Amino acid sequence: MKTFAAKLGALALVAMIAQPVLAGGSVKAKAKFDGERPRRTVLKMDADQYCAKANEKKVGSEEAIVSKEGMVKNVIVYVKDGLGDAEFEVPTEKAELNQQGCMYHPHVQALQAKQPMIVKNSDATLHNIHSFAEKQKAFNFAQPKQGDEKEVTFSRPEIVKIKCDVHPWMSAYVGVFDHPFHAVTEKDGDCEIANLPPGEYTLAAWHETFGEVEQKVTVADGEAAEVEFVFKAK
Question: Beta strand 127-131 with 103-105: parallel, antiparallel or unpaired?
Fold first, then answer.
């Protein structure tokens, strides 16, 4: 029995050694806007009475959300260069794009190519989901009933715009990458990319209205590098 137990222990050790270990450092990113703060407009949803009644409060436009302190929400920060030809396992966790209150939630998200995403209709009204992909096959389908769900995937990296053909104010963006090193800023303008192997990288920060800016960063093992992206008014 001792010999058998020893063999099991050895096999377990080999298995542990064979598994890839996610280690390294991280990047804490901040997105700011330099210029006059853009004003959000109130969305008019009167064309669909369900949409007009679905929101107790007024809903603001989402294409440029900047706080009073100048921090920018919905910026996709990602590694643009520095990973070489490394390949990464596709996450099995499903992302979600929910239609609720006649708005897409989240407005901006990032995932890995071939990672599944569930498109869900939480509204009791018709929605149409139309992707404007350029580097892969686009999709265009309707979800007429509350509770309708459909799983979709994106096969290649690109930032894909999605719109509802029924409700023109509804839009969303999905950043698709061939690696897991990406994040989206919250209302405080902050986000973090974790488990990034030590090395030198070019990071990019993308925003649907302000465009894209880049910055180089060096990541050390066990440490958190800090970067600040500044979008300037055009």
Answer: unpaired
Domain at 86, CATH number:
2.60.40.420
Residue 18 domain-assigned (yes or no): no
Instruction: Compute φ and ψ for 9, nearest 5 degrees.
Output: -65, -40
Give the closest residue to 55 by CA, choosing from 150, 123, 151.
123
11 assigned to some structural domain: no
**Length of the chain, please?**
234
Contact 75, 185 (CB under 8 A): yes
- The verdict on residue 9 lying in a domain is no
| Residue at 113 is within a domain | yes
The pTM assigned to this predicted structure is 0.89
Question: How many domains would you assign to the chain?
Answer: 1
- pLDDT tens-digit profile of 118-136? 999 999 999 999 999 999 9
**Amino acid at site 60:** G
Do the beta carbons of residue 97 and residue 119 sit within 8 Å?
A: yes
